[in-house]
Amino acid sequence: xxxxxxxxxxxxxxxxxxxxxxxxxxxxxxxxxxxxxxxxxxxxxxxxxxxxxxxxxxxxxxxxxxxxxxxxxxxxxxxxxxxxxxxxxxxxxxxxxxxxxxxxxxxxxxxxxxxxxxxxxxxxxxxxxxxxxxxxxxxxxxxxxxxxxxxxxxxxxxxxxxxxxxxxxxxxxxxxxxxxxxxxxxxxxxxxxxxxxxxxxxxxxxxxxxxxxxxxxxxxxxxxxxxxxxxxxxxxxxxxxxxxxxxxxxxxxxxxxxxxxxxxxxxxxxxxxxxxxxxxxxxxxxxxxxxxxxxxxxxxxxxxxxxxxxxxxxxxxxxxxxxxxxxxxxxx
Length: 332
Ligand SMILES: NC(=O)c1ccc[n+]([C@@H]2O[C@H](COP(=O)([O-])OP(=O)(O)OC[C@H]3O[C@@H](n4cnc5c(N)ncnc54)[C@H](O)[C@@H]3O)[C@@H](O)[C@H]2O)c1
Prior knowledge:
The protein has helices at residues 20-27, 39-52, 72-84, 99-111, 125-131, 169-186, 188-196, 202-218, 233-242, 249-267, 272-284; strands at residues 9-12, 32-38, 57-63, 92-97, 118-122, 139-141, 144-148, 156-159, 308-309, 312-313, 315-320, 323-327. With 332 residues, the chain is of the alpha/beta class.
C-alpha cells in the first residue's frame, strides 16, 4: 500500500491575482472564503481582492503585521473568530500575506476542526521563495520560534510577482537572504546572478522556488536533505531570539550563514573562499554590516532550536555552492 502526500500546484505568474477566482474554483467548490491577512495588506489590497473574488462571500480576518502575531494569543483570536463567524470544516482558509500570515494561517488551517482546506498567496519575497512552499506552519512561544506547528500542505500556492511592487525595500532585502541561501544550496547560476544584480526577474524567482520545491519533494518531513534549508538558521533563530524578534528573519539568517561558514572554516568543512564570497554577497545586498556577531553570544540560545534532536545538534555546513553536509552531534 502506498500513501501519497497530496500534490499541489505552485503557480507563478504576473498579475495572477486578477484571475484568482478562476484559479480558486479549480481547487475549491464552495462559495465562502475566509482570508487571513495583516493590516498593511488589507490597506493595500482589500478593494482588489473584493473585486477579483466577487463571486465568493469573503470574510477578512485581520491581524497586526509582524512576528508578534505568530503567537498563541493571535492563534486563539483567529481560530475563535472563524468558529464564531460560521467557518465550517469544508470552507476555505486563504493566507494572503508574508511568512507571518502563512505560518499563522497555516497552523490554524492544520488544527481548526483537525484541518480545513487552505491556500497560500504569499505577498513578500521571503514568503514567495520560502515560507509558502513545503507545508511547514507554526507559531512562536516564549521559549523559541516555531516551536508549535504542524505540516499542513495547501491546496495550492499562487504567486503573483506584481505584488512585490508594494513591498518595502527592506522587506525585499529580507527575502533576498533566503534567495541567497537557495543559491548556496543548489544553484550556481543563481549565485552568479546575485553577485551582479539587486532585483530578481521572474526567472530567478522561479529558480529560487525550484531549489526549495525539489528538496521538499524528496524529503517532506525533514529527515535528511530538507535540513539543508536550515543552513544559517540554527544561529539565525538564536539571533532572532537574542533580539526578541526585533531583527528580521532574513537579516538574522544572514548573520547566521556567516557564523555557520566561519565555524565551517574553523572545523575544516568550508573553504575560506566560500566564506569570503558569501560575505561579500551579503554585504552587497545590505543584509549584514560590521561589526559581525560572535558565535559566543548566541550558543546558549540554540538549545531550544528544533534542529537540536535527541542525539545532539545536527548542523549544516557548506562545502561549495551546491554542496552541503549535515553533521550530527556538533558541539560548539
Ligand atoms: N514556514 C516556513 O517554511 C518558513 C520559512 C521561512 C520563514 N518563515 C517565517 O516567515 C516569517 C517572516 O516572513 P516575512 O518576512 O514575509 O514577514 P511578514 O509576514 O511579517 O511580512 C513582512 C512585512 O511586509 C509587509 N508586506 C508583505 N507583503 C507585502 C506587500 N506585497 N506589500 C506591502 N507590504 C507587504 C507585511 O505587512 C509585514 O509588515 C517568519 O516568522 C519566519 O519564521 C517560515
